[in-house]
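Feature request, filed as a ticket because there's no other form

It would be nice if the structure record came with a short human-readable summary line next to the tokens. Right now we just get the raw output. Example of a typical job, pasted below so the devs can see what we mean:
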Amino acid sequence: MAGGVTTTVAAPASEIAEIAEIAEIAAPAAPVAPAAPTAPISAVTPEELCIYRVGSRLRLPEAVMQHYDEQLRIKALFPWQHECMAVRGVLDGRNLVYSAPTSGGKTLVAELLMCRTLHRWRKKVLVVLPYVSLVEENRSRLR
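Raw output as currently delivered:
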């Protein structure tokens, strides 16, 4: 990744509650404030969050987006995930720091950016995961 400015994006409390409801876990009583300033989440339309629209913007092959839609059943991104990819310089390989709760969708952002790097620049990528269970899950997803 290129050096330079690192931007932090955090999921808003409303999406934390929505994610917690989807995952059937309890949402935290009060959201934890991020350590660094966060970028504002702009208003995006549902069409802009569609996985195929995001894939087109990232210039990913149709087969990749079809895999996310049909196999993984990911139909759309959360607005904060879209915002992560809209941060200036991220699509050019700049660093990005973002935070969300467990099962919040952080891996999807990383996977889409990784697929872009593999497809567009034909560069190798390194995936570092903290738990064996995440390694197993991601290994099967990325095949």
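Something like this underneath would help us a lot:
DSSP finds seven helices and two strands in the chain.
Residues 106-121 form the longest helix (16 residues).
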